[in-house]
Amino acid sequence: MREEAAALEKIVFENFSAGGTCKIFHHGIVNEWIQDKSFELHIGILNGIIGEFGNGGAAISCGLTGNVRFYGGRIYVDDKEETISAILKTSWYVGHDIYGSHKPLFDIYGTRNPLLRRKSIREQIIAGVKANHCDLSADIIQNMFELSEPRVGRSIKYVSGVRWKASIAIGYAYGKKIFCYPWMNSYDVKLFGEQITKSIKVLTDNNCTVIFPTTKEENILKLSEKFNIINLN
After folding, report:
1. Residue 110, SS3 per DSSP
2. In a 3-state reduction of DSSP, which class is residue 175?
3. Which of 98, 142, 169, 176 could pair with 92 as two cysteines, CB 3.0-4.6 Å apart?
4. Percentage of the chain with pLDDT > 70?
5. Are 211 and 45 in contact (CB under 8 A)?
């Protein structure tokens, strides 16, 4: 009988350095870096990255998902050294879909080609289930994250605030285990708090790791009872 692998407990970063252009949705674009920062991410809980806008929280989320360049540092997964490439394979930037932050699809002349259509949220969830050989159906994942039927038929660009949980559902279908939110201020947490709280609970209950950069520790306390604080201030 094959023994099951032990559950992961933590990922340690020593002298982590990353940075570049971070797109933070309605906050626009910021050039941000984190330099030689050491920290631990605990598996299966909410990891709050505490710091003001520009302190490096966005660079951590973007750096761990390949949205900015990783410049250096050592990574240990349960005391075994690992590469950033391995982390990128299992990470997901919340708010993106499989197309990332790319512009709409255009033809070789720079004109939008109506034949090059982005897949809807539901089509991406279905594709993820197939690619990941997931035991859960697309319907179950859709219900887990409380996505209504009319909205999952749209592109993620056209679902407003539901974008966060739609993005997570796609990443979950593809088997991602590390979910990195963009930097959010206290107003963002208040505005999307109920949705974020529910999504984080689903993820942590299923042993996924959540990274959430924000301004204050109290914002993290509102989102989950299971948390780890990393202070950048």
Report:
1. coil
2. coil
3. 176
4. 90
5. no
